[in-house]
Design a protein that fits this description.
The protein has 158 residues and is an alpha+beta fold. The chain has helices at 21-29, 56-67, 74-84, 102-108, 128-144; strands at residues 6-10, 16-18, 39-44, 50-54, 88-91, 97-99, 113-119, 122-126. The chain has a single domain (6-129), classed as Chemotaxis protein chec, CATH 3.40.1550.20. It has a six-stranded antiparallel sheet with strand order 1-7-8-4-3-5.
Length: 158
């Protein structure tokens, strides 16, 4: 399953926001290897002014990729510090909400509402106005570069 579509949700005074039901369904389908954690992992994006989020399975893959780097390299340390050190596990409450830490909300400029944006294996949480601006730019890039996107044939070949 994939994180798809875009949803706008309000943030309450405690920093809690309802994760879209479709996104919670994706998380529920993820096999859990010995962990009963049901929630998301979130960290500040280093590409955009937003919060990146995923399931624990994706975070484990990122961790494995970081572990494959030279253990004493600056790159490995930078990725481990930025992604793993900056990540927080956010468990769903009984109503499907998560409490996003203030530092993540502040770094993304999110205050009263959050735009959830599906990106396949991950999703992002944006300040709605920032996402509107970015979305327009992204659409122009996609339009200009549309010939570079080719559908893969079954088995992973183009």
């Amino acid at each position: 399953m994939l994180f798809l579509s875009t949803y706008l949700n309000k943030i309450d005074k405690k920093g809690r926001v309802s994760v879209p039901a479709q996104f919670r369904a994706v998380i529920a389908e993820i096999p859990r290897s010995g962990s009963d954690f049901l929630g998301i992992v979130a960290y500040g994006s280093f590409l955009h002014p937003c919060i990146e989020a995923c399931g624990m399975d994706r975070m484990e893959k990122l961790s494995n990729s970081i572990d494959d780097l030279d253990p004493y390299s600056d790159n490995r340390d930078a990725f481990a510090t930025t992604i793993l050190g900056g990540s927080v596990q956010l468990a769903f409450d009984s109503e499907g909400r998560v409490a996003i830490p203030e530092n993540l909300l502040k770094s993304a400029g999110i205050k009263e509402s959050a735009m959830f944006v599906g990106k396949g294996k991950t999703f992002e949480i944006w300040r709605p106005e920032s996402f509107t601006e970015y979305s327009a730019k992204a659409r122009e890039i996609a339009k200009k570069e549309r010939a570079s996107l080719q559908l893969s044939k079954p088995g992973g070949n183009k």
